[in-house]
Amino acid sequence: MRYWMFNWLATLVFGIIIVLFTINLGPLANFLLTTFVGFMLAGATIQISLELSPRFYRYGYGLPLYHILNGGRHLLFNSHSRFALDVGVLLIYFGVFWTVVIITSILWMRRQERKIAKENQKKKTTEENLQTKSAKENLQTKSVKENLQTKSTKRNQQNKSAKNGYSIATIPRR
Questions:
Q1: Residues 145-169: tens digit of each pLDDT
Q2: What's the DSSP call for residue 27?
Q3: Torsion sign across C-alpha atoms 96, 60, 3, 80
Q4: Region label for 80, one of left (φ > 0), alpha (ψ between -120 and 50) or beta (otherwise)
Q5: For the chain, where are the alpha helices, taking DSSP H only?
Q6: In total, how many domains does the chain have?
Q7: Residue 103 counted as domain residue
Q8: Domain for residue 14, yes or no?
Q9: Among 76-80, 110-114, 127-131, 155-159, where is mean pLDDT lowest?
Q10: Per the domain annotation, does 140 fall within a domain?
Q11: For residue 91, is it within any domain?
Q12: Domain containing 47: what range?
């Protein structure tokens, strides 16, 4: 049972690392994850222990794969005595990466909300501009129509007076 729980914890740690890289880096995450896995495999004591490796490979003590392999050796062969340290390090990795994922997700959501708000503001201002333009155009067309109507009524009056033999100056007043 402990072996499967430890594998589950290892899967959670690697899963959250993948999520963190993917959320924050997008397409660049594929390259960086491949590089990260290469560094973990180089410093994880798969073939030679870190004590026998050159000092450069001592960075492997801080990577999760080192602790996963040592914890797995303890569970399978009962050969490693610092199992609690390995589980603790993996839990710390998971906790830290989980909080970072939550924080970055919140920041990305706020950024997206601001972007949507700006787009909505632009749409609103363009709609207002269109409405003011259409209102101005309506006023202009109304004034043009009124001018045409007044001109047409004057013409009608002139035509009626011309038919009756009256000129505009001699129209009788009632």
A1: 777 677 777 766 666 665 555 555 5
A2: T
A3: negative
A4: beta
A5: 2-25, 28-42, 64-77, 83-164
A6: 1
A7: yes
A8: yes
A9: 155-159
A10: no
A11: yes
A12: 2-124
